[in-house]
Write a structure and sequence with these properties.
It contains 3 helices and 3 strands; from the N terminus they run βααββα. The protein is of the alpha+beta class. The protein has one domain. The chain has a 3-stranded antiparallel β-sheet.
C-alpha cells in the first residue's frame, strides 16, 4: 500500500459529504471500515476500502418504484 492510497479523516469527510460527528457515529456503531493509525492522533483508510464501502451502501439502498 502506498501513502497516496490512504484517505485521512478530512479526505473521507469531503468524499462522503458528511460531518465529523456523523463519521464518528458510524465508526462507533461499527458501520464504517476499520482505520489504520498513522500516529497517535492521525488515522487513515485505504482508498479502495472506502470506495468498496460506498459501493456496498449504494447497493443496499432500495430502488425507487415509478
Amino acid at each position: 500500500m502506498n501513502i497516496l492510497d490512504l484517505l485521512t479523516v478530512s479526505d473521507v469527510l469531503a468524499k462522503l459529504h458528511i460531518s465529523r460527528t456523523t463519521l464518528y457515529e458510524l465508526r462507533k456503531a461499527g458501520d464504517f471500515p476499520r482505520h489504520y493509525c498513522l500516529s497517535p492522533r492521525r488515522i487513515a483508510w485505504p482508498r479502495s476500502t472506502i470506495e468498496d464501502w460506498i459501493t456496498q451502501r449504494e447497493q443496499e439502498q432500495p430502488q425507487p418504484i415509478f
